[in-house]
Amino acid sequence: MKFPSPFYRWRPHPWHGLEVGPNPPTVVHAYIEISPFDLIKYEVDKETGYLRVDRPQRSSSIPPTLYGFIPRTFCGERVGKLSPKAASGDGDPLDICVISERPISKTEIILNARVVGGIQMIDNTEADDKIIAVLYNDNFWEDANDLQDIPKALIDRLQHYFSTYKLIPGKEKSTYIAEIYNAERAYEVIRAAMLDYDETYGI
């Protein structure tokens, strides 16, 4: 029997086995770990590629968009240098938040996302950027190409979520948002994360 090309006999690792996207850095793939309906923080297991329960959300905040990462990216030295208030990148794939007009409740899915901006978050002195994107073939968002095309209320919700989702009562806050940036800056961060990945894991 002849298999179609490409054919994966085994499931590819979502971080290392998938492509960055059809036209990076403007249109990228997003592997979704968390939906806006999740009260549990899920995170891909770096060894196996399966989704692991990280923790229940500590606060009442829930993610306002789909949340995951861009395959074959790594927040290393180059990403860290783009964040003046950070000592380094956080050593993880680059996070991405994807806005969709229709509710999507499934996770462990791959989608095409058009990049419109980003959030520069600092987590314990490390750069932990969150790329903001819209679902590529979503007619509702077809004219959204930059952050100014997204309602401010939605950006405020993203800021609030990332400002509070790691809060622990009685402990000092470990994260803060240093900057909200537009599409051009987001492209720069994605390019840096792609180069950091190639340097760390090879092309």
What do you see in this structure?
- There is one protein chain.
- Helix content is 18%, strand content 30%.
- It has 203 residues and is of the alpha+beta class.
- It has one domain: Inorganic Pyrophosphatase (Alpha-Beta Complex).
- The strands form two sheets. It has a five-stranded mixed barrel. A two-stranded antiparallel sheet has the order 2-3.
- A hairpin with a 6-residue loop joins β2 and β3.
- The longest helix is centred in the last third of the chain and has 19 residues.
- It is globular.
List keywords for this structure.
alpha+beta, 203 residues, five-stranded mixed β-barrel, Inorganic Pyrophosphatase
Structural class: alpha+beta
Q: Helix and strand succession?
A: EEEEHEEEEEHEH
Looking at the structure, the CATH topology is: Inorganic Pyrophosphatase
Major beta sheet, strand line-up = 1-4-6-9-7
Strand fraction:
25-35%
CATH superfamily: Inorganic pyrophosphatase
The total number of structural domains is: 1
- Low-confidence stretches are none
The profile of the biggest β sheet is: 5 strands, mixed, barrel
In brief:
This protein is α+β, with helices and mostly antiparallel strands and about 200 residues long.
Topology:
Elements (H helix, E strand, L loop, with lengths): L26 E8 L5 E5 L6 E6 L9 E4 L7 H5 L6 E2 L5 E5 L9 E15 L2 E2 L2 E6 L16 H13 L10 E8 H19 L2
